[in-house]
Design brief:
The chain is α/β, with parallel strands linked by helices and 428 residues long. It is built from twelve helices and 13 strands. A seven-stranded parallel sheet has the order 3-2-1-4-5-6-11, with helices on both faces. Helix 1 packs across helix 11 and helix 5 crosses helix 6. The longest helix has 21 residues. The two termini are 42 Å apart.
């Protein structure tokens, strides 16, 4: 067997918001772990449960994406070092990988004053993704939205997140929405997603406060303790802090947090989450929860928690997990909502449990099914025919890939309305 054929197929990860903090941490972190510079801390797919599940190796991932900002990835990585997000020296150590990913970033939209129709934007975005797959000789590509939160969609106009989601389907790629933005949840895209034959997952990555709530909520219910009120506060900076200063965007973000409590407690307690933009915090976030509950004989008690974490460092490994799992699902021929990935989301698609322990058990069952191959064709559809290739492109050389993957998968024809565009900007 030739050297090229001994390598695994290469898989694309197309990031919406590709120059943002999360995306930069994803690219730099993947390179660091692949090179053995850091352990895979936080990567669920690197735990023993996923061994031999057929997931694409981290070393096989190729990055590209869309963004409307111009700050190149190497410079953005240096900014994250200054903010304490990335370790000192890492941007230099993985500069080649950052530069390679930067070459694959294309200008997104819509931008203020953009006159392009929704149909034209979708077509242009899809063409960028297909070109990425062809030029880099990828087996397939997964589109992941890691852009800043946008306000909830109103009316028939497609918001930016939905334009990119539609483009992903049109390019024949699995889609993951790591944000609370509308994405495939827009009414105009529901039937298109269902008929696309592609797997998709989302939405809103569960990285901190809601992760804790998905553990504590079931605890109160299982101990028969009556929760009277559950209030919270988020202090954060960076692009997400600025975006969530918009009450409409904050409302979209809080919907998933509230759903977790309602589902795990069986009732909706009093209290809300307040989100404050504190620019000086940068990528760091403090989340505080105050839980008022009743014990035996009506004794009133209080639980308070404080979660202090770095958003990008919490999110990046989950993005890599989701890209690998979605790519494997696509390879196995799965389609429709990947409810098995609810573990990663505040507001998962499909009918999934909200308690973290149940979600993790479901995820491990999914890993076993992938390992055993029981789902590849029998339960949810047939995969693509495998082929071979070994030609060198601008993105390097690799071994085997599926024929279906050369264009990213099955192309989905356009059938969306063409309302006036809405402005938006992805910044990570």
């Amino acid at each position: 067997m030739s050297a090229s054929h001994s390598r695994p197929p290469r898989v694309g990860v197309w990031l919406i918001g590709a120059r943002g903090s999360v995306a930069t941490t994803v690219v730099a972190g993947c390179a660091a772990v692949t090179a053995g510079l850091h352990p895979p801390t936080g990567l669920v797919t690197e735990t023993p449960a996923f061994a031999d599940s057929g997931l694409p190796p981290l070393s096989s991932l190729v990055f590209g994406g869309h963004d409307t900002t111009d700050c190149p990835l190497p410079k953005r990585a240096e900014q994250l070092v200054a903010g304490g997000v990335l370790p000192a020296g890492l941007p230099t150590a993985v500069e080649a990988e950052l530069v390679a990913a930067e070459r694959e970033i294309r200008h997104g939209g819509p931008v203020p004053g953009d006159t392009r129709s929704d149909e034209r934007l979708i077509s242009e975005f899809a063409a960028d993704i297909r070109d990425f797959v062809r030029r880099c000789d990828l087996a397939r590509a997964v589109v992941v939205n890691v852009a800043s939160t946008e306000p909830a969609a109103t009316g028939s106009a497609l918001p930016p997140s939905s334009l990119y989601a539609a483009a992903a389907l049109r390019a024949g790629c699995p889609y993951v929405n790591f944000t609370p933005s509308t994405g495939l949840h827009h009414p105009a895209l529901v039937s298109v997603a269902e008929s696309s034959g592609l797997p998709y997952a989302g939405r809103d990555g569960k990285t901190g406060q809601t992760l804790l709530r998905s553990v504590l909520g079931p605890m109160f219910a299982q101990r028969a303790l009556a929760v009277r009120a559950w209030s919270g506060a988020n202090l954060l900076g960076g692009g997400d802090g600025a975006a969530l200063a918009d009450p409409a965007a904050a409302e979209a973000k809080n919907a998933g947090k509230e759903r977790v409590l309602a589902d795990t407690l069986g009732t909706t307690p009093e209290g809300r989450v307040h989100i404050d933009d504190v620019p000086v915090l940068g990528d760091w976030k403090t989340a505080w929860d105050h839980v008022a509950f009743d014990g035996f004989l009506g004794t009133r008690m209080i639980l308070q928690t404080i979660w202090q974490g770095c958003d990008s460092a919490l999110a990046a490994p989950l993005v890599l997990d989701l890209a690998r799992l979605a790519a494997r699902a696509h390879e196995a021929g799965l389609s429709g909502p990947l409810t098995e990935l609810a573990f990663f989301f505040k507001d998962p698609v499909g009918d999934a449990p909200s308690a973290l322990a149940e979600q993790h058990a479901q995820l491990e069952r999914f890993a076993r099914r992938l390992k055993d191959g029981r789902d590849a064709g029998d339960e949810r559809g047939k995969g693509g025919k495998e082929g071979k290739g070994s030609k060198r492109g601008e993105c390097g050389e690799y071994g085997e890939y599926g024929e279906r993957g050369q264009s990213g998968g099955r192309e989905v024809p356009g059938a969306w309305p063409d309302p006036a565009t809405s402005s938006g900007e992805e910044t990570g």
